[in-house]
Design a protein that fits this description.
Length: 418
């Protein structure tokens, strides 16, 4: 919004681009008569205007006009620039060419073009090309000029607000598409299987990060689950997370499992990642059709929680291999077996849950802290258990701003419900 002077009056920064000294003086006198609080600078050509505008920073920091050089009218004192008054007949630009150059050099300022008596059509064409208004020389009084400048600035603000709103809507739509890819509907037929999941983006992320999960029941009745984490944050990592999740589901439905599945997934990662420094960690579970045995694969990922009835939660860290993308085509991942007692449950999660700070110091929650939190709520139903654990971790990290990383948690149980 326009700056305020020391008396609190709205003050507009104006750049006049006019090669005729008489017309420039007339504009200055009209502005004085308008009562408009302003900072005016005069340049004689589009080239001079472009040079002056080069120092202008973009939004949201207000743009400032540099101090005048050479001859000119009233000089600006470096305040924010809000409006450009542009003559359409200049030594180095005629007609709309000058307007296009000014719009490119000052995309966030309002532009009002000045035309001759016989050039009203040109003024209309200038508005169609991006100017906020046009004025006919010789037909302008001080009040009219002041109102035109004010309205032009307000219209420019409205245009920018509308553009920002549209950009926000597009980003929200993109976020929704990413979310649908990262947070899928499990593909499970077995009514004994109960799945609960949570996903919470990190506090500083405008988009979902690269955490992902999925659960798929293969045609042979084998139940497969995965939780993964792409390094980094932002749209590229989120898109890669979606890609890996969809590829993982396709490989499972094609009958792949175990280390061969991870090798193919790593090939997808290497082909799709934006840089060689990008990697992904994951934990994959394969649960036998009789639901008595769980095979576990870990690729650089944290261990898991085992909920044992009636009231105990243990942290399980079975052998694992490197993260995907660290040693392409040379990595190996040992597969371990885990026995889940009747009525038990398995919880796999991304490291955002255990890397939050505890208090205002540098200490992090870690695996031991997570087990302590989980054992405060060992008998709760799955939904309550997940919410209680995540909320407790969030509260512990409140002094440092909350959980900084994305958190994905998957709770799997079968048999009798809790």
């Amino acid at each position: 919004m326009p700056a305020l002077d020391r008396q609190g009056t709205e003050r507009l920064g104006i750049l006049l681009v006019e090669d005729d000294p008489g017309d420039a003086l007339l504009v200055e006198e009209l502005l004085a008569d308008s009562g408009l609080e302003r900072e005016l600078r005069w340049v004689r050509s589009v080239a001079e205007a472009e040079k002056a505008l080069q120092a202008l920073p973009g939004p949201p920091v207000p743009a400032t006009v540099p101090a005048p050089a050479g001859e000119g009218g009233a000089a600006a004192r470096g305040g924010p620039l809000h409006c450009v008054l542009l003559d359409l007949h200049l030594p180095d630009a005629v007609g709309l060419d000058g307007l296009r150059r000014i719009l490119a050099a000052a995309p966030h300022a309002a532009v009002v073009v000045l035309t001759g008596l016989s050039e009203e059509r040109t003024g209309l064409a200038a508005v169609a090309a991006g100017a906020q208004d046009y004025l006919v020389k010789g037909r302008v009084e001080g009040d009219l000029l002041g109102r035109a400048i004010r309205y032009a600035v307000q219209r420019r603000y409205a245009e920018q607000a509308a553009a920002a709103l549209q950009a926000g809507r597009l980003q929200a739509a993109e976020n929704a598409r990413l979310e649908r890819g990262l947070l899928p509907t499990p593909l499970v037929r077995d009514p004994r299987v109960r799945i609960r999941a949570r996903y919470r983006p990190g506090r500083q992320q405008a988009l979902l990060g690269g955490d992902f999960y999925d659960v798929v029941e293969a045609p042979d009745g084998m139940l497969h689950a995965v939780v993964g984490d792409v390094s980094g944050h932002g749209p590229d990592e989120a898109a890669l997370g979606v890609c890996l999740r969809v590829a993982w589901r396709a490989f499972v439905l094609a009958g792949l499992s175990g280390p061969p599945l991870l090798r193919l997934l790593e090939r997808v990662l290497v082909a799709e990642r934006a840089g060689t420094e990008i990697f992904a960690t994951l934990t994959q579970l394969s649960i036998a059709p009789d639901r008595r045995e769980v095979r576990v694969l870990r690729a650089g990922h944290p261990g898991l929680l085992l909920r044992e009835p009636p009231e105990r939660v243990r942290f399980i860290e079975l052998p694992g291999g490197p993260a995907l993308g660290i040693l392409p085509e040379h990595a190996d991942w040992p597969e371990s077996t885990l026995q889940v007692p009747p009525g038990g449950a398995v919880v796999i999660f991304t490291d955002g849950l255990i890397e939050g700070r505890v208090g205002s110091g540098r200490e992090r929650l870690g695996e031991e802290g997570l087990v302590e939190l989980a054992n405060r709520h060992p008998d709760r139903p799955a939904d309550d258990f997940l919410d209680a654990v995540i909320d407790s971790a969030q509260r512990l990290a409140a002094d440092s701003g909350g959980l900084a990383d994305d958190v994905a948690v998957l709770h799997l149980e079968w048999g009798h419900p809790r």
